[in-house]
Amino acid sequence: MKITVALYAGLKARALAPQGASEFDIDVPEGSKIGDIIKLLDLPDDEVANIFVDRSIKDREFVVKDGQRVAFFPLIAGG
Amino acid sequence: MKWIRVNMSDLSIKVEEAPKKYEQMGGRWLTSSVIADEVPATCHPLGPLNKVVIAPGILSGTTAPSSGRISVGTKSPLTGGIKEANAGAKFGQYLKRMGYSAIIIEGQPKDKESRYLLSINKEKLELVDASEYKFMGLYELSEKLASKYGKDVGIASVGPAAEHLLAGTGIAFNDIENAPARYAGRGGVGAVFASKGLKAIVTEAVTGQATILNHELFETGRKKLLSALQEHAVTKPKGALNTYGTAVLVNILNEAGALPTRNFSRGTFEGAKKISGEAMAEAAAKNPKAGMMGHRCHPGCVIGCSVIYPDAQGKSHTSVEYETLWAIGANCEIDDLDAIAQMNSMCNDIGLDTIEFGDAVAVAMEGGLLPFGDAKGAIALLEEVKKGSPLGKIIGSGCGTVGKVFGVRRVPAVKNQGMPAYEPRVIKGIGVTYITTPMGADHTAGYSIAPEILGVGGKPDPHTNEGKVKLSKDFQATTCFIDSTGCCVFTAFAILDIPSGFEGMVEACNAVTGANWTTSEAFEIGLNVLKMEHQYNLSAGFSANDDRPPEFMKLEPVPPHNMVWDMADSELDSMWK
Description:
The complex is a heterodimer.
Chain A: E1 2-7, E2 23-27, H1 34-40, E3 50-53, E4 56-58, E5 69-73
Parallel strand pairs in A: 1-5
Antiparallel strand pairs in A: 1-2, 3-4, 3-5
Chain B: E1 2-7, E2 12-17, H1 27-38, E3 52-56, E4 69-75, E5 82-88, H2 90-97, E6 100-106, E7 116-120, E8 125-129, H3 138-149, E9 154-157, H4 160-163, E10 171-173, E11 182-184, H5 189-195, E12 198-203, H6 215-231, H7 240-244, H8 249-255, H9 277-286, E13 292-295, E14 306-310, E15 316-318, H10 322-329, H11 337-350, H12 354-366, H13 375-387, H14 390-396, H15 399-406, E16 413-414, E17 417-418, H16 428-436, H17 449-452, H18 468-485, H19 491-497, H20 499-513, H21 519-539, H22 552-555, H23 569-573
Parallel strand pairs in B: 1-6, 7-12
Antiparallel strand pairs in B: 1-2, 3-4, 3-6, 4-5, 7-8, 9-10, 9-12, 10-11, 13-14, 14-15, 16-17
Helix pairs in contact in B: 1-18, 1-21, 6-19, 6-20, 10-11, 10-12, 11-13, 12-15, 13-14, 16-18, 18-21, 19-20
């Protein structure tokens, strides 16, 4: 199945992502959890602090579905 | 404790020993206390009975990290209630090093056309005629004052929009490079300053350190706070704030479906990436001569969240912040970063609060004055504000006024102050803060976004109401204390996760004031400041009915989450019980 991945605040440089892309589609096995996708992308696990799936906060145990959008952020803040 | 009292009715200046009750106060604690004690709650905000109190924080002027905030307090012409707005600037550090804990400006000159400048240095305090600077833009003014008084002086000034007495105006403090870019922006504090006939205050540059009573304790506290700031992923060198500025938030709020867009009618913005911190960092890397990430608003800041954005023509814009990018960007559906940066600089120049301006333009767009996405039209409106034309005065008076004039029902304001960059129907805790803070809709008053969206200091579900009144109240009380210390509110990100940082902040305050506060007592101090401000508003005529969201937020579900504001009024009222 295909999902859309978005990487922010420096994570794109830390992942197995198409060159220069901060947002791209990838194929993942059915039943993949967010934690599996972090490994698949070779993201530094301890730096991924906030994960959103289709605009809602999720954790590493969440099982993604076909066509979903998954966004990864390190620990950030502002205001 | 000494303060400077300036009476603009008879042009007298006095240095007074402050009554003992104020001895340990600073920043917001001091400004709100003086306003509560000296300004009749029912007075006209632009009349002679209102006052402007400018007070550096308890730690300002010391080597405590990121402690150069200065508070401005008054009765707000925007909300009609008490107001504190603060900025990070060298101005307050100089003041404190000269031994002054506040400037109180009162009265009003008989001649409304007169303009004065207050000059403060170690030997002399004087009011001088400033009619040559009348309606002058603040970039030109800053240059003129730096050449006349010295390049490192501290300057507080108001632009032409404030001289038109508009409720959406702030007070500019000059930054390290003398740009008038550090704003005590919200609630019309600029208009009150201008109503006193003041155009600017200039302070002599003073090095050294403000008075510290216990140096050993100060060093212990300073090091603990510094260590927390240097360790935390958000505030450390090369951390998120330092690398991307505050606008690192654009994408995360967009991914959360909580980036208010098209005058609070949606929670996602197609053009978000184009106006993000990442986009600014890319531009700054391409043009390091004109751009800079990790810029500092005042000497001694160790976070460095400010940004100098270089536009396509190579012009520098200081400082383009998240709230501005959202207000003029997503909220107006403008995705042209250069145009937003240009408007940011124009707002700095004429003295306008960028949040209130963005909210006002978005409501005007909703009312049909100009189309959403029309950057050129928005720039033209800023020119009108500068001129003081009738249309400009309407825009400069804030989104509430614009809504009334153009018959728009969707006005995102509480107590007539425009909402900042977080959708309260989706993030309930920040909604409670917007609705209940005595300041009118203000995110900095109780920044529950930290745990609700960013996972800093906890991780409560943003979509639920449960526990959010307590969350907001705890943040509001703690913020009242931090705003009194002179420390930047962003220090909260580190001390929420690293408690020794807060201990250090309180110990450093004890070392300066001679107090012996625990962290719990510091929280209680903050809570009492909050209650005092609330009580002032009640005396000014506010009631529980003013602690309510705009009606449209209860009636209109906001996509993509399709949520409404659904917290019971009685729950909101429990804030003050």
